[in-house]
Specification:
Largest sheet: none
Helix content: over 70%
Radius of gyration: 35 Å
Order of helices and strands: HHHH
Shape: elongated
Length: about 130
Amino acid sequence: MSILTSRATLSPSPLPLPKNHSQSERARELNRLRAEEEERLALALSKQQREQERKAAELQQLRGQSEELRALSEKIRIARINRARHEQLQEKEAIRAQEREYDATLHRCGRRGMYVCACFCACAGI
């Protein structure tokens, strides 16, 4: 149940106060109504949170008891590790390719007698 739904279903519409109430009495009454409203909302939110926590604990217990779910969880964990390793290997290969390109450029520039600067882009024609 959402907070807006809770507010709509839990709070009665403010009752019109008689005109002979003094301003302070009206203010006290409105404050009392607001406090009651806030208390109802707090209780509803608390109940909703307890229900979510109960469901999460129940799911955790089911996962722990089910051999199939444990096996699937382990497969998912291994797949995530393998994906991270694959990404690392791809990154290493990209770095190696850049190093090979850089070395080839240095070799080519050195054979021609060109000046090799810190930024090899000019020599490589990049």
